[in-house]
What does this fold into?
Amino acid sequence: MPAKKQLALLVSLLAITALLSACGLMTTEEWTLRATMSSMQDQMNTMAGASSADTNPQIEPRSVAEAADVSFTLRADQDGSSLVFIGVGGEIDGIVNPSLNVELGAVVEITLINGMPVEHDLRIDEFGVETGSLKQLNEQRTIKFLADEQGSFSYYCTLPGHRIAGMQGLLIVGSPSQAAEAVSVVKNPADLPAPIGARAPEVVKVELIAREVTGQLDDGATFSYFTFNGSIPGPFIRARVGDTIEITLTNETESAFVHSVDLHAVNGPGGGAVYNQTQPGESKVFTFQALTPGIFVYHCATPSVAHHIANGMYGLILIEPEGGLPPVDREFYVMQGEIYTEEAQGSQGNLTFSHEKMLNETPEWFTFNGAASALASDENALYAKVGERVRIFMGVGGPNFTSSFHVIGEIFDTVYPFGSFTSPPLTDVQTINVNPGAAWAVEFDLDVPGTYILVDHALSRLERGLVGLLYVEGEANPAIFTEGPATQYPARLK
It folds into this structure.
């Protein structure tokens, strides 16, 4: 089939699949359609010089015949609009894409049951094992291997499109004490590019790196985060209307999952994600023109999309209007998210993502910039001075909860609702409601020194880690704010 006809058919299949998924009507036949679409994409990549063999390299078998020390059973099945592995029995029973934890040196046995009349398999590259194809409903196969390498490794279905559709999980070899040292994923809120101002449109090149890390979630607790460039949120992308923006997404070789990026500033299918579903060790490039000014969210768009977002893959992209934004003294970058773990809040050690809690919308933590109380630390708090005007770009990665964002002790003089810089701004606002996948910008003047608290005014979330601090230095202004009765300052009564 000619390339142009293949492209047209691929676009049609993508549209049909997206519609079926949105309506919650994905059946066995539609999954076959999705697999066909992915297979065609592989063929088109091959014509462009990207062989599908690169994503599924030949591996050397390393299976062992010893008795198993630990056994797991997984069922290949469907969960909503995603293809998944579901745990069967034991501690993983009913868990979607469960993390399989084993000791270093253990002989591991994994049985795969096909829960659908659609072809599936399971492979773990690093240990050279795969089940082979399961084509019949309830057909099952077992693999056995020696877990002689420490770390986190992906198990996944090799069928075209199935991994991207959600069929992947983690095999974790080694006890928590053997795990890699946790890093900070917190994005400093002052870490954003300078304003663009009045310049002509140009080409802006952006490098995004999908990086999976073990990060510090709370005191004594770590979590397996997904990030852009190692921080949450990802890099603050800044351009102006009319710019041509080139996005390069690289998925690190060490990643266990496919990743992608959907930018809400893009006019085009998937916000660009149709061009950048990126396997570990690969890079993808796409280009778009910034047609609309505003502050927009970007996030990973690989199924389960909510899982990738909940684990930290989100950020903001600012498209300045022609001439730029009004000048301010300081700008800050804040995003709110949720963390879903099998363990309760307050648990210690390396915590496990809970797909069930995510679906039930019962997070254990709420966060600003990726971790509990992250913006309340001396290192990552917000700092300013009396007399300055500040702007906060506030977004919600989510994936599920709206933020009633409020700074205790301040009033937002100017608010750009829904991130729009072409609509008339609001004035004198106490609290803004920012939905998941949305961003607003607020500005206010600092009249009085002191410590101001950033919160979601659904205040029980503060007790789940959602708090930040703004420290303002400078001289007191008793005419505006002071302790004591008003009679001490009769000039204020006139």
Notes: Residues 154 and 343 are 22 Å apart (CA to CA). Residues 3-22 form the longest helix (20 residues). The chain has four helices and 29 strands. Confidence is low (pLDDT under 50) at residues 1-62, 176-180.
